[in-house]
Write a structure and sequence with these properties.
The complex is a heterotrimer of chains A (254), B (334) and C (328). Chain A is an alpha/beta fold. Chain A has a domain at 9-100 and 173-251: P-loop containing nucleotide triphosphate hydrolases (Rossmann fold), CATH 3.40.50.300. Chain A is 31% helix and 29% strand. In chain A, strands 6-9-10-3-11-12 form a six-stranded mixed β-sheet, with helices on both faces. A four-stranded antiparallel β-sheet of chain A has the order 2-1-4-5, covered by helices on one side. A two-stranded antiparallel sheet of chain A has the order 7-8. The longest helix of chain A has 16 residues, at 187-202. Chain A is globular and about 60 Å long. Chain B has 334 residues and is mainly α. Chain B has one domain (38-330): Orthogonal Bundle (ABC transporter involved in vitamin B12 uptake, BtuC). The radius of gyration of chain B is 22 Å and the shape is globular. The two termini of chain B are 39 Å apart. Chain C has helices at 2-18, 39-55, 70-81, 99-107, 121-126, 139-153, 170-183, 199-212, 224-237, 250-257, 269-284, 305-311, 322-327, and strands at 28-33, 58-63, 87-90, 112-115, 133-136, 159-164, 188-194, 216-221, 242-247, 263-267, 292-294, 297-300. The longest helix of chain C has 17 residues, at 2-18. The chains are: A alpha/beta (254), B mainly alpha (334), C alpha/beta (328).
Chain lengths: 254, 334, 328
């Protein structure tokens, strides 16, 4: 039933083959093959617990997979940790691993990518530059927060989500991975994020999008991959599918 | 690459509101303001109280004595702060001070010179911190268990190395360090001030500081963003060990000998100072001035009670009451 | 704000409750002893306070937070050195930890009475002062007294075992040394173990020793706590092995009176503290103090245990006190 169609390696920005991951006795996914085309929006859908987030985390270096190979930009086994993934140009909006509550908005936006001034052998934070750029980044994406020096703890769920999207989108990455970016957002914020994803695509940035909203997926993506119970079961072009077909693929009723 | 600025949906007023500073009155009724400044409030309160009740308390000589007495605890609280900021705890701190002192004493007694002795003492305690960090991260053993184990281990090591005997350290350098003055402050006070400044810059003005707080706040999220949280933790414990080494030099200078005795009140007070200083024991939130002032406050408290001839039986009680009060205030911290 | 008020109020209460009112007294004495986490020093404090009351001397007794608090003890002494006391009574945690804190005292030419644990004379000299007098018990002599008693109790050539305190502890070493000197060539010391001043560790060690040496005739423990542990082991074994302790704490005196512990050598921290106050009073009167004043050590066995208990923490009978003679 699966219609996994292979593309030339040069066309894929991120791909994997035979990838497996388990946590103790729990198998998150097994023998997964997946490809995201350069310059496209690639969606991954599936029911809760299907293994989508874990797959993403393996692809961007957060988890080490048990077996299989990963390719990024034509290179094999590219990252041993998230830092390398970020340095190679992958930014990720994680589902639960988003912001540090005790840090400010600006500190979160520049976390692990802080702007420093060199003073002799020392590198000191340029806090003013980070605050200024943080303000600019937020206002470009129409994100409302009371202040960039506010601790993230006091922000609403939607504001936090918006900030972590802003961090991923605002850094000039080649590939932006978003795990349910609009899950906590209101109607207007969702529209903003969708516009942002289109914009990224127009600029040639590849996007991997995980979502439970099939309409959104069909609107935004070029290719859709379907996971069910730890397996990659199907992939379809978004233009060639219907909502009903997606429901059937996800639930296994097809 | 530019960002989607031009055609971003503009239906809602975009951007960041200008930061507004809350008014003083609003600050004064905000409990979290008092929580943040608990140690300062406490210190000022104690100074007023003891200043009124004891004529000697506010004398220059006594102020100098308090600062001198607080130096060791300030240095240790800084070390403890770095560890607590990663949501860990270093229970081996006072034992490391003991081991540092013993090593200093032995190397000095072996005739290798006082500078070599001091450097090796600091290296040894830093190595203990490094080992703590490695066991906690690579060994995946809880901080509490590791540092408790180290506490016991280095207690034994100190006894073995020293044969349980104190070693006299008659060094003019250390005597000068302990009793000399530069301007209004004794040298140990300057050491503590320098430690505060360096630690403050490290915490607030370097990438390491931000990564430290991120690691303490949400280690998993921090590591998903590429922060090497294990390295950060190891660094924090190593800093703690380094501070223990500096403290051991100040200690030997002050008492003129290296003793294989652990001063448990140094450990307890270092944690108390950290709590008084508004550092969250759950990690992620820290300052250096807070714990330093907390250490000063604890020292001033004992000094004042001594001047008032309060029985030594009541003094630990007073310290306990203050620390619990501070922890209570901390509940208001948002 | 509310918290701050509570804090200030609480501390204020503390201050007013415990501050010593300054009466017109003959002399004001500042005393600093070792950690009050040990009954030995609590008794010493009691001796200081009661003697001061009897002599009409004002006194402020301070102590380290614990036996390891060498710097804390120095800090407290430094604070008291800033105040106007006529005499400083010091029982240092180590031979050197109070040396620096005593410099300002010496500069004010106030007498320094050193009790119990000595201050290193050379370091004091280097810092520019000397203590006015030292009052303390001789641990070697106390150990020797225990050794002599053991000689009376067991036949010549018998096997005995020694239970020491923490490895390398100066007091423990001196006591053991005194005992060994007294029994040298007359008794056979088969083993010496270290039980860290701990009752349970001593019990375990003694049980093992009794198993290894079935013909053992006696134990000497370097303090009473350990002696009581050893005694329990002997009792359990059902053998007649003599056990001698050292210190003279209440539990040991009771045990001796009940015929369990064979004997103990009593030192009197109470008397050491009291004699310290007497020395201060003498100094205040301008009398020349003897450099060294031995404090009494008495052997307690079944004959005098009851009397000792009755008078505790003072000695059961009269004792020599040269300072008291000088005060007359
Ligand atoms: N760190 C972990 N430890 C143990 N089990 C885990 C861990 N992370 C994920 N799992 C398990 O792996 C399986 C897949 O989880 P995953 O989060 O990838 O699902 P998902 O498809 O993202 O679901 P959702 O749509 O709800 O986000 C689940 O059974 C989950 O319980
Ligand atoms: Mg998920």
């Amino acid at each position: 039933m699966s219609t996994v169609n292979h593309i030339a390696p040069s066309e894929a920005i991120l791909a994997c083959q035979g990838l497996s991951k388990h946590f103790g006795g729990i198998r998150a996914f097994t023998d997964v093959g997946f490809q995201a085309r350069r310059g496209e929006v690639t969606a991954v859908i599936g029911d809760n617990g299907a293994g989508k987030s874990t797959l993403i985390r393996c692809l961007v270096g957060v988890h080490v997979p048990d077996g299989g190979t990963i390719y990024f930009d034509g290179r094999q086994q590219p990252f041993s940790n998230p830092d390398e993934a970020r340095k190679s140009g992958i930014e990720t909006v994680h589902q639960n691993l988003a912001l540090i509550d005790e840090l400010t908005v600006a500190q979160n936006l520049f976390l692990n990518r802080e702007i420093v001034r060199r003073i002799g052998p020392f590198a000191l934070l340029d806090r003013k530059a980070m605050k200024d750029q943080a303000r600019a980044m937020l206002s470009r994406l129409s994100i409302n927060v009371p202040s960039v020096t506010q601790r993230v703890r006091r922000l609403s769920g939607g504001q936090r989500q918006a900030i972590s999207i802003c961090r991923a989108a605002g850094s000039g990455a080649k590939l932006v991975v978003m795990d349910e970016p609009t899950a906590a957002l209101g109607v207007q914020e969702t529209a903003n994020v969708e516009a942002l994803i289109r914009k990224l695509r127009e600029q040639g940035v590849s996007v991997i999008l995980i979502s439970h909203n099939f309409d959104q997926v069909r609107r935004l993506s070029d290719q859709i991959w379907v996971m069910r119970a730890g397996k990659m079961v199907a992939t379809v072009r978004s233009s060639e599918t219907t909502g009903n077909e997606l429901v059937a693929l996800v639930t296994g009723a097809a | 690459m530019s960002l989607p600025a031009d055609n971003a949906p503009a239906s809602r007023q975009a951007g960041v509101h200008e930061e507004s500073r809350p008014s003083l009155a609003a600050l004064l009724i905000d409990p979290s303001f008092w929580a943040d400044w608990a140690s300062v409030v406490g210190l000022v309160g104690l100074v007023i109280l003891f200043g009124v009740t004891s004529p000697v308390f506010l004398s220059v000589a006594n102020m100098q004595a308090i600062l001198l007495a607080a130096a060791i605890l300030v240095v240790l609280s800084i070390g403890q702060t770095f560890v607590v900021a990663t949501s860990g705890i270093d229970l081996s701190l006072a034992a490391s001070v003991m081991l540092g002192a013993v090593i200093l004493g032995l190397i000095h007694a072996a005739g290798l010179g006082i500078f070599a002795a001091c450097v090796l003492a600091v290296l040894a305690t830093s190595a203990i911190g490094l080992m703590n960090g490695l066991l906690i991260t690579a060994g995946r053993i809880p901080d509490f268990v590791v540092t408790l184990g180290t506490l016991s281990g280095i207690t034994g090591l100190g006894l073995i190395l020293s044969g349980g005997e104190p070693t006299m350290v008659g060094s003019t350098f250390l005597l000068k360090l302990a009793s000399g003055y530069l301007g209004p402050f004794g040298y140990p006070v300057w050491v503590a001030i320098a430690a505060v400044l360096v630690a403050h810059v490290a915490l607030y003005h370097t990438r390491f500081g931000v990564h430290l707080l991120a690691t303490g706040g949400q280690a998993e999220s921090a590591s998903a963003l590429g922060i090497r949280t294990n390295r950060v933790k190891i660094a924090a414990y190593t800093i703690s060990g380094f501070c223990a080494g500096i403290a051991s030099i100040l200690l030997v200078a002050r008492i003129g000998s290296a003793e294989p005795q652990i001063n448990t009140s140094l450990l307890l007070n270092s944690v108390a100072a950290v709590v008084l200083g508004g550092v969250s024991l759950f990690g992620g939130r820290a300052s250096i001035l807070g714990p330093a002032i907390g250490a000063l406050m604890l020292t001033a408290l004992v000094n004042g009670l001594t001047l008032l001839s309060v029985s030594a039986f009541y003094q630990p009680l007073a310290v306990g009451v203050i620390v619990v009060l501070a922890a209570l205030i901390m509940r208001y911290q948002k | 704000m509310r918290m701050f008020n509570c804090l200030a109020l609480g501390a204020g209460l503390l201050a007013t409750t415990f501050a010593v009112p300054a009466h017109a007294e003959d002399a004001k004495v500042a005393a600093i002893v070792k950690g009050l986490d040990n009954p030995f020093f609590q008794t010493m404090q009691k001796g200081i306070e009661e003697q001061a009351k009897a002599d009409g001397v004002g006194v402020n007794v301070q102590a380290a937070a614990n036996m390891g608090d060498a710097t804390g003890q120095a800090d407290k002494l430094t604070a008291m050195a800033l105040q106007d006391y006529d005499c400083y009574l010091v029982n240092p945690i180590s031979v050197s930890n109070l040396v620096q804190a005593l410099v300002p005292v010496a500069q004010k030419k106030k007498p320094i009475v050193n009790i119990d644990s000595t201050i290193d004379a050379e370091q004091a000299k280097a810092a520019g002062f000397a203590v006015s007098t030292y009052i303390g018990t001789d641990n070697v002599a106390a150990g020797a007294l225990a050794g002599e008693e053991m000689l009376k109790l067991v036949p010549k050539g018998s096997k005995v075992a020694l239970v020491a305190g923490i490895v390398g502890d100066v007091g423990s070493n001196a006591r053991i040394k005194g005992f060994k000197q007294a029994v040298e060539g007359k008794l056979d010391v088969v083993v010496m173990v270290s039980a860290d001043w701990d009752r349970e560790k001593a019990l375990t060690a003694a049980t093992d020793i009794l198993a290894a040496h079935p013909d053992l005739a006696g134990f000497f423990a370097a303090n009473d706590i350990m002696a009581l542990g050893v005694e329990r082991a002997v009792q359990t074994s059902g053998k007649d092995v003599k056990v001698i302790g050292l210190d003279g704490i209440v539990d040991a005196l009771k045990s001796v009176a009940a015929g369990e512990l064979t004997a103990t050598v009593a030192q009197y921290p109470y008397v050491v503290g009291a004699m310290g106050v007497e020395a201060c009073k003498l100094a205040a009167k301008g009398k020349e103090l003897p450099a060294n004043v031995p404090a009494p050590v008495l052997l307690i066995n079944k004959d005098n245990a009851e009397a000792s208990l009755k008078n505790f923490p003072r000695p059961g009978g009269d004792y020599p006190d040269p300072l008291r003679e000088m005060l007359k």
